Amino acid sequence: MTDSTTAPVDPGASRPATASLTIGSHEVGPDAAPFIIAEMSGNHDGSLDKALDIVRMAADSGAHAVKLQTYTADTITIDVDAPAFRLSSGHELWGSRRLYELYQEAHTPWEWHEPIFELARELGILAFSSPFDPTAVEFLHDLDVPAYKIASSEIVDLPLIRHAASKGKPLIISTGMASVGEIAAALTAAHSTGNDQVMLLSCTVSYPADPAASNLRGIPVMREAFGVPVGLSDHTAGIGAAVASIAFGSCLVEKHVTMSREGGGVDSAFSLEPVELAALRRETEVAWQALGQPRIGARAAEREGLRFRRSLFVVEDVRAGDPVTPANVRSIRPAGGLAPDDFSRVEGRLFRKDTAKGTPMDWDLV
User: Fold this and answer.
1) What distance in Å separates the CA atoms of residue 343 and residue 325, rounded to the nearest whole number?
2) What global pTM score does this model have?
3) CA 146, CA 140: separation in Å to the nearest integer?
4) What is the per-residue pLDDT across 173-185, written as a single tens digit (0 to 9) for each?
5) N or C: which end of the chain has fewer CB within 10 A?
6) Distance between CA atoms of 154 and 177, rounded to whole angstroms?
7) In the chain, at which residue ranges do the beta strands (DSSP E only) sit?
8) What is the pLDDT of residues 102-143, one digit of tens each?
9) Using CA atoms, how far apart are residues 310 and 297, in angstroms rounded to an integer?
10) Nearest CA to 153 among 98, 206, 105?
C-alpha cells in the first residue's frame, strides 16, 4: 500500500483536471451552490411506504438528490458466522452483529428502486444509488440513473470502479480510509474508461463519526492533489461539520436522512430529520454565498458604510482668527473631513474665515 503522507501523486495521468461536473441538470463544482444528497440507506426500515415518504421529505426539504444503496446480503458478503464476518463488540450502533444479517436488514429491495425513482422524477428530485457489484451497476444502468456513487469500502475494487465509470455517467467516489495511492488508483481506473466526470468525497468511516475526526482541512489538499471536485460524505450528528466544509471548498454534501430518529432504521442515530435537512440545504448555500473572493478591502455592499466613517468636523460655529481646539473640532461621523489622526497637526492653528458648525475640516480652513 502506498504511504498516505509521502507518496508522489499523479492521479490525472491521462486526463485533464475537471473543475466541475454535471449531475442531471445540476452543475457540481466551486461555481455552483452546494449539491445536497439525501442518503436513504436502510432508514426505510423495511417499508416501501416509508421509503417513498423519505423521497417526499427529501424533495420538500430542498435536497437535490436522494440516494439508495443497491446490494443484497449475498452480493455484498456471504452467510458465514466467523469473527471476520462480525462487527466488533464495542461498535456503538451494531456491536457484534453479523454482516450478513445486518445487510439483510438494511438493504433496499431491488424491486423498490423503480417506484422510488419514478416518484423522485415526479417530484423533480434526482435519484441514484451506490452499486456494490457488477450486477447492481447493470441494474442501475437499465434504470437510467444520472450518476453512480462508489462507497468508501469499495474504493479498492478497481474492476467495479471501471465498470461503473464505463457507463459514461458522473462517478462520485467516497474516500474514507483510503490512502493517497488508493485514491490515485481509483481515479486512474475511472479515467481509463474515458470518463472525466469524476469527483471525490472526503469521508470518515465511523458511525456515528466524531466531528474531531472529520479533518476538513484535507478537502482543499485533496482537490489540489487530484484536480477534481471534492465534496463531503458526512456521518457526524447535525449539520455543523457539513456547513463548515463549504468554507474549505466542498461542493457536495451527502448526509443520511430519516423521517424520525426515534422511529428506527439502522442508520437513524446519525441521520438528519426533515427540519435539519432543510437547514442543511439553506445553510450550506449561505456558506457558499459568503465565500466571496480571496481579497481584503471594502466590498461593494459597504459603499454606504464608507460614508459614515469618522473624520474631523467643525462642531461649533467659529470666527476667522479663532484657534482650532478640541472643543470646536472633533472626530465624528460621517466621513468627508480630515483623518482623525490629523488633529494634532491642525490643533492651535487659526481659522482663515468664519466657519459654520457641521463643516468638514479641511486644510484650506486654517
Assistant:
1) 9
2) 0.86
3) 10
4) 999 999 999 999 9
5) N
6) 11
7) 21-23, 26-28, 35-39, 65-70, 126-131, 148-150, 171-174, 198-203, 230-234, 252-256, 311-314, 329-332
8) 888 889 999 999 999 999 999 999 999 999 999 999 999 999
9) 17
10) 206
Nearest to 127 by CA among 105, 143, 138: 143
- Cell readout for 270 is 446519525
Grid cell 466488533 is found at 88
Q: pLDDT tens for residues 18-72?
A: 689 999 999 999 999 999 999 999 899 999 999 999 999 999 999 999 999 999 9
Strand 311-314 and strand 329-332: the pairing is antiparallel
Strand partners, 36: 253
* CB 338 within 8 Å of CB 351: no
Amino acid at residue number 164: A
For residues 207 and 228, what is the distance between their CA atoms, to the nearest angstrom? 27
Q: How confident is the model at residue 4 (pLDDT cuts 50, 70, 90)?
A: very low
Please give the C-alpha separations between residue 256 and each of 47, 116, 225, 260, 310, in angstroms, as whole numbers: 17, 17, 28, 12, 51
Q: Which of 4, 12, 1, 13 is nearest to 180 (CA)?
A: 4
Averaged pLDDT for residues 192-199: 97
- What gap in Å lies between CA 186 and CA 162, rounded to an integer? 9
- Residue identified by cell 479641511 is 362
Task: Give the Å distances, CA to CA, from 30 to 48, 277, 292.
Answer: 36, 21, 11
**CA distances to 114, 162, 167, 219, 241 from 13, in Å:** 38, 16, 21, 21, 32
